[in-house]
Amino acid sequence: MIAIKDFGLSFDYVAVNMAKGEHLTAEYLKLNPLGYVPVLVDGDTIVFDSFAILMYLDDKYPQQPLLPHDLQKKAINYQAANIVSSRIQPLQNQPMLNFVEGKVGLDEKLAWAQYHIGKGFADIFLAAQIHPAIKKFNVDMVVFDARVLVVVISDYD
């Protein structure tokens, strides 16, 4: 939603309450058979997955790019997005946590999440992942002071 606002586009926001299972309804699964959020519906085009949506919007509206034109800076942004989407964010999803808790118990689940989320933050972090890491898993962000790279996506040259 933030990216759509950055493009200055008008859009209809539809909230999906995952706690109530709205992402698993037949209607929603027609848009995204995996049952994940978010989903972008742009006319006949349906795109799901945050990164895919961002790339779609960036390509469709090149007059207002999200990514820098500099290849090295663009690669750093791709790296940041991949680390978060493949190493940090999945570990905060409830189905993953329920599975781990079922295997090792509640206390070990917290230690497991702290360890793996912390490894991701040792490489890089994005703001959307910080709050749950601190509040939900008590990850001490102080230990990353010298090792964290913050990517500013709007940094253009």
Protein described:
This protein is mainly α and 157 residues long. It folds into two domains: 2-60, Glutaredoxin (3-Layer(aba) Sandwich), CATH 3.40.30.10; 71-144, no CATH class. It contains seven helices and two strands. The protein has helices at 2-6, 26-31, 50-60, 71-88, 94-104, 106-123, 127-135, and strands at residues 39-42, 45-48. It has a two-stranded antiparallel sheet. A hairpin with a 2-residue loop joins β1 (39-42) and β2. The radius of gyration is 17 Å and the shape is flat.
Would you spell out the secondary-structure blueprint of this structure?
Layout: H1 2-6, H2 26-31, E1 39-42, E2 45-48, H3 50-60, H4 71-88, H5 94-104, H6 106-123, H7 127-135
Antiparallel strand pairs: 1-2
InterPro entries: Glutathione-S-Trfase_C_sf (IPR036282), Glutathione_S-Trfase (IPR040079), Glutathione_S-Trfase_N (IPR004045), Thioredoxin-like_sf (IPR036249)
GO molecular function: glutathione transferase activity; maleylacetoacetate isomerase activity
Protein name: GST N-terminal domain-containing protein
